[in-house]
Amino acid sequence: MKKIFFLLLISSLSFAQNANRKFISQDLKIDGLEIKTSEGVYFLKFKTDKIAEVQFIPNGQTNNIESQSVILKDEEILYDGQFSDNSSKFSSKNLTIEVVHNPFQIKFFDKKNNLIFSEKEGYFKQKHVPLENVKGNIKSDSTEVIEFNLSPDEMLYGGGARALGMNRRGNKLALYNRADYGYETYSKLMNFCIPVVMSSKMYAVHFDNPAIGYLDLDSKKDNTLAYETISGRKTYQVIVGDSWTDLISNYTDLTGKQPLPARWTLGNFSSRFGYHSQEEVEKTIKKFEDDKIPVDAIILDLYWFGTAMKGTMGNLDWEKETFPNPEKMMSDLNVKGIKTVLITEPFVLTTSKKWQEAMDKKVVATDKNGKPFTYDFYFGNTGIIDIFKPEGKDWFWNVYKRLINQGVGGLWGDLGEPEVFPSEAITAGGTADEVHNVYGHNWAKLISDGYKKDFPNQRPFILMRAGYSGSQRFGMIPWSGDVSRSWGGLQSQTEISLQMGMQGMGYMHSDLGGFAGDYFDNELYVRWLQYGVFQPIFRPHAQEEVASEVARKDIITKAKAKKQVELRYQLLPYNYTLAFENSQKGTPLMRPLFFEEPNNPKLLDVCETYLWGNDFLVTPITKPGVTSTSVYFPKNNNWFDFYSDEEQLGGTTSNIAVVEEHIPVFVRGGAIIPMIKTIQNTAKYSLENFDLHYYFDAKTTQSSGKLYNDDGTTANAFEKGAFEILNFNGNVNVKVVVVKLTSEIGKTFPSFDKNVALIIHNIKAKSVLVNGKNVDFKTVKNNIEIPVSWKKGTEVEIKIQL
Prior knowledge:
Layout: E1 3-6, E2 16-18, E3 21-29, E4 32-37, E5 40-48, E6 51-58, E7 78-83, E8 87-91, E9 95-100, E10 105-110, E11 115-127, E12 142-149, E13 156-158, E14 172-175, E15 196-199, E16 203-207, E17 213-217, E18 224-229, E19 235-240, H1 244-255, E20 269-271, H2 278-290, E21 297-300, H3 326-335, E22 339-344, E23 347-349, H4 355-360, E24 375-377, E25 380-384, H5 390-406, E26 410-413, E27 426-427, E28 430-431, H6 432-435, H7 439-454, E29 462-464, E30 476-478, H8 487-491, H9 493-502, H10 522-532, H11 555-570, H12 572-585, E31 590-592, E32 610-612, E33 616-618, E34 628-633, E35 639-641, E36 647-648, E37 652-657, E38 665-668, E39 672-675, E40 689-695, E41 702-709, E42 724-732, E43 736-745, E44 754-761, E45 767-770, E46 773-774, E47 778-780, E48 783-790, E49 796-801
Parallel strand pairs: 1-7, 20-21, 21-22, 22-26, 26-29, 29-30, 40-44
Antiparallel strand pairs: 2-3, 3-4, 4-5, 5-6, 6-19, 7-8, 8-9, 9-10, 10-11, 11-12, 12-18, 13-15, 14-17, 15-16, 16-19, 17-18, 23-25, 24-25, 27-28, 31-32, 32-33, 33-38, 34-37, 35-36, 35-38, 39-40, 41-42, 42-43, 43-49, 44-48, 45-46, 45-49, 47-48
């Protein structure tokens, strides 16, 4: 129950939204403020002390449309109400809503009473003028619009996956999920249209309505943000935060946190379009094994259910001519620690083996007369599964359930924008236009719910090409679509991943090497994989004209690329800890530099360099033949070259030499990075022996790091107490450096003793004590290596005498 404290109450106020909207009454309820007008009702409330919600319900409508994105229950909040003849203020500890009575306006202030956001004009109807890129898709005669005032200098982020530059202000964006095949440096409309806008003033506004429409980010240059839609909920939330990570944590509290994926999700994938047979799958994996290239999964594209690209979609079962014994194939792969991931699509072609069954079970969307709605697209004549209908949902899940029981380890949902979804189609959730943007979202929910019901101890792998705000809570792993295999295609990828990470989708990643086109460039391929080490998912994928797998490259390219795969596995302890942090706080794995310096205006549109977690600074090389590049080093720490240990001063920009073997990567001074030796796949992951790299910097007197560990597969392991967290702390004094190792062991986790190689960079030591006893240590150049035996559940103190 919420608690509300009002300083002053004036119960009868007269104000108007506009000339046609007249105030009728005001009612202070236990959970918010209700205002009745001649045209409808406003309801204002706080969901937390940092999240405010405004809802408008026009006359003749009801509030019976559930949110597709918001899951946060209202917290118990102490409100402060201040009312006068001119305005009403409704405040929490961190956020104030002010309603100006005449002329009517809603304003939002932060805890320092700074104006951050305000309505310009409430919901109104206008003639629909479609953007050129969605003519034929968004067909409504009129749209409903709400406008807001922007300050002249704020930059805007959000609106989903686009390639526009980090600052998206000045663009009008269609909200209509659609693939952009073969895009390069620019793409204004892609697969994830998320109705959230984030400002450089560190607030966000989320429009809680999935219907198709537009986000206008001041395209008319009149300091106006506008949300325009064909129909649906008239609800939005304003979110504030004390930092960028706090803002994103609050947004993902609102829409849901991403569950921790299985550890193998962070390994290397063998993937292409596509593997035509069981024999080809087995030969491909053998090639990885023969070359000792780590691999955790193989992804099968559409040939697993048919020998032809067209005419077979919707079979949703093995093509026995080419995959004669898929269960044995998957069993053999599982013994090797390799998962099998299958593509599926939501389309059931009228020529597919399951069409009649789909008709009998009434699982496809219908026309206005209730008859199955069919239409033509690239792959054939089709219907689309009505995943909003219980019968459709159950039918589709039973297909998946059977495949999982056969040994399938992960699921790929493709074409889920949906690729083609005519406006005339009708689902149990509404018309095609009303549910278009949440089709992929609900598809992921269907799979997530199915796992919770039938495989509750497994973590699902759900690779999806389209989604909506909150899709992360279903465990969706998004990717950036069919990007061009070109330098231009590579150049847009950091922006897309950084933007989507800020919008809750922390695992946005690209097809490493690029997907579309038969062009191949060895340098491009290697540079893309070098970047891939420091993006959320390491998954080379391409059309089969040019092999995407590291194991199929020429000797020189293979050697360079293999090094990147090996490094990806060496970083598993660090990366898995990032994944855990994302599951708890929503913090993206890839982070813009302005997270580090929010008040530095020069960094607000930078995406060429970014942070991987808290401690790595990464600059991908996105053009051919580059021999040097400029890198800015954030001012709060000094930074050390990951490969050479060369120091760079924080707050400076340096010209960095670029070599073929790797891209520029730097580590924060004082960082403590856990790593392992290379393994063939995550089934062999162990922390019995691991390395702990401490990047000593005399200017950083206190350091900390941690390593999260569990069995890598069990759902909700942390919540079940089946985990351990290893904590590392460093303290620097004049002549002594002290490193402490402590642990938190969950009540059901079978922990074990560990052998740690503590490697301290950039230091010269006279002696070392481990728990008060002198130990021998190695000195290599400017680094020392200390062997540490760490008994489970104990604290270890290492003193280094300088």
